[in-house]
Structure formats: C-alpha cells, structure tokens
Amino acid sequence: MSDPQGLRIDRKSTSDQAAGALREQILQGQLRPGTPLQEVSLASVFGISRNTMREALRLLVYEGLVQHSPHRGAAVMTLTEGDVADIYGVRRLLELAAVNASRGAPIAEFERMGKLVEEMGPSSLARDWPRAVELDMRFHQYLVEFLKSERMSNLLQTTLAELRLALVLVDGADSDDAAATQVAEHRTIADLLARGRQGECAEVLLRHLNAAEAKLRAVVAVQPDASVVAGI
Amino acid sequence: MSDPQGLRIDRKSTSDQAAGALREQILQGQLRPGTPLQEVSLASVFGISRNTMREALRLLVYEGLVQHSPHRGAAVMTLTEGDVADIYGVRRLLELAAVNASRGAPIAEFERMGKLVEEMGPSSLARDWPRAVELDMRFHQYLVEFLKSERMSNLLQTTLAELRLALVLVDGADSDDAAATQVAEHRTIADLLARGRQGECAEVLLRHLNAAEAKLRAVVAVQPDASVVAGI
DNA sequence: GCTTGACAAATTGTTCAACAATTGACCAAT
DNA sequence: ATTGGTCAATTGTTGAACAATTTGTCAAGC
Question: Among partner residues A13, A151, A159, which is closest to B90 by beta-carbon distance?
C-alpha cells in the first residue's frame, strides 16, 4: 500500500526490512542491552502488522541479538561474561585457522586487507568510534574468508554481531586509545600475512584477541551489576 | 509457584512442536530433499494456523533444513556437493580442535564415549540404519563437547543435522558395510583419546572424516542429476 | 512482617478471514 | 521459436479477535 512510486527492486520482505532496521538500532547502541521489545509498539513504529513484526523479531532471535522468553516477550540480548568468553573461543578457532589457510592465497586478497587497514587510520583519528568498530569487523571478516567456507564466514558474521552488543557498552573514554593500538595491530597482522609469515602472524593475532577479550569481559562483568543496582 | 513435578512439559510453543515434528520427518527421510512444503496443506496436516506454520518453517529455514524462495515457497533442502564439502570443512575444524582440547579432561567424559561405542556394536548388527546414524551423531557431538563451548556444540548440532539430509539418500545396500567400519573407527578414536594419544587420534579422525566426505559427495553428486532428468 | 490467594491489567500466543503481490503455466499471436 | 497476455495457485501482509500466561496489586490470614 505504501511506497507508491520508486523503482522497487526491493527483493526484501517487509519483515526482513524491519529486522534490518531494528538490527541497526541495536548494533549502533541506540537500543541498549536489556531494552524490552514489545510487538505492538514496535509494529506501530515501523508501520507494519504485528504478525510481520513477530517474524522480524524471530529473525533477530536466531541471530542472537534478541532474547526471548515465552509469554514474557523479547528484549535486546545482554551478554554474560561467559558469552564473551565463548565468543572469543569461536574467534580464536576460526581466525587462527584462517591464518594458516592463507598460505599461498592470491595476492589480490592480501591487497584487499591492506587497503582496508589504510582506511582505518584516518577514521580512528577522526574519533568516529562506530566506524572504527565497523572497519575492525570487516578486517576480521576478510581474514576468515581465507577459509573459503560459506558456513564459517556466516558463523563469524553472527558471532561478531553478538560481540557488538558488548562493544556498545564501551564508553568513549578509552576508545581512542583502543582504536589506535587496534589499527597498529591490524597493520602488523596484514603485513605478516602478505609476507607469508603465518606462524608469527598467528601469535600476534592470538595476543590481539586475548587482549580484546580481557577488556570486553571486564566491561560485561561490571555492567550487569549496575542494572541490578538500578533495578532495586 | 506451580506444580512441582512436571506433569506438563508442554513448555513448547505450538510452532516449535510443529517444527520438531516436521524436522523429524525430514531427518528420517520421509520427506526427501526437494519436497515442496506448502503452508496451507502443512498447517491443516498439523491442525494449526497458517501463521503458526510459517513460524515453524522459518525455524527450519534457519537450521538449514528447509530452503525458501520468496513467493515460491519452501522445500526440503537439497545439498550440493559444495555444501557437503563445506560441512566437512566445519567438522574437521571443530572435531580436530576437540581432540586437542581433550587433553587432561576428566575420566568420566572419556568413559561416556566408551559406553556409547559399546552401544553401537549391537545396533549395527541389527541393521537398524537410522539408529546407527543417530549414535554416530551422538559420538561426534560428545567429542566436540570437549571444547566446552555452547556455540561450537550448537554449530556441530545444526551442521550434523544438515548432513543427515545427505545421509537419507544413502541406500541400504552399503549401509551395513559402512556401519561396521564406522563402529571400528569410533572405537579406535575413543581408545586413543582415553589413553592421551591425541596426535594419533587426530590422524585417525581426519581419515575417518575424509572417507565419509568422499562417500557422501559421491551420493549428492549423483542424486541431483536424477531430479534434473525428471524435471525436464 | 511475611506469606497467601484472588483479582485485574498487560502482553504474548494463536487463530481466522481477507486482500495484495508474485510466480508459473497455459495459450494465443506474430 | 519467441513474445505477450491472461489465469489460477501460492505466498506476503494485514487487521481483528480470542486464549493463555505473566505480572502487579491488594486485602486477608498466620
């Protein structure tokens, strides 16, 4: 009914579009972890039917971005410290394997990573934290594509999306510092990869991941307490 | 709060129950790959609403058991040879990592695998192919639990479920032979694991997986042609 | 004080009936 | 053989209704 004109090579169902919009709001941090997501209100916000909204929410539940309890409704997923540990276990497995798989890969693929790293420098200087996160994700996404596995790339995609639920809790204070070291480490990783020194690269990557895990575990370990305090 | 003893483990929504029933039919091979799954007819079969049936189908789509094209409907997923290769890539990554992670695990966990292997012997003699498949899956599921990762166990679960889509295409002829060697290999793997010889175990497991992959790739490489011939 | 139970309100779970949008097939015309 | 146009079938989406369940409130009872 809506959208009278316009070339609609839409190709996406209404529920997918709604899920996409909601996903964006969650990953941008506009909807913080724990925020309840009620079907009727959301449906009216997006101007769609409740049934369609339900489908959209189900999709995000599958992706791990939304929590659902029967008859109690949906809410933005809140990660526990255990979740973060689990997620980094997956990342170590995938990304270290990807480093090994990169031996003898076409040069173009290494160059792609190099160009991405160059893009990251300016953005961190501009203190565009969301963009820094975005480029960070893309870097690791590229890395895992060395595995040439649709399912593994998919897994990393959803896993990184979950991780962003914790990243939005990082306050801007240390983000500048974090972004700077991040870019440096990514550059090191990309260089070692392109030079075929996978062994050293794996070591650097492992430290890179472990450091990030420690920081994020600290973040989610503190945050839940605050909500408990606020609750009662 | 409520009844102490769970008389009603109903606890599952209608759509989940329908999805469970449909999943069972697919994995048992009663609904072969490519079979169209129409919302209205399925809904009437299960005696539920079309909307609820849609939710059930969406769940199976997410699990990779059902294919979906917009406005064209859903159908039982048909694996390509590439899919099988991809799936075995995931299995190698997960299961080989699990072998390494099993070092120093509690004895009880090794014993659990041993008992499972003992169960497998008689069932293969009884030529209960579905049960042999079921126990095979459980074996590898146990193995991956050495990783102590909820997400990785989940991944293997869905990955193995997808694989069963190809297993149902295996005709009973060579299944006896396959089951026998399977049990022997599982026994070897379990023994090597319990004795702490992870290195050798990894080799055996790798050959085990590669052999299975070769067989299944051959199966799915042949099957689709038949449908193409039948289609046109 | 603290539980207990009844009750009301709100939200989700599910059903139903309708209509819009898209696909695929069938058929005619060039 | 290709094009183009109906037509039926199926999916996509809507809106309204009702059932089931959770949650909060409040009074009664120990």
Answer: A151
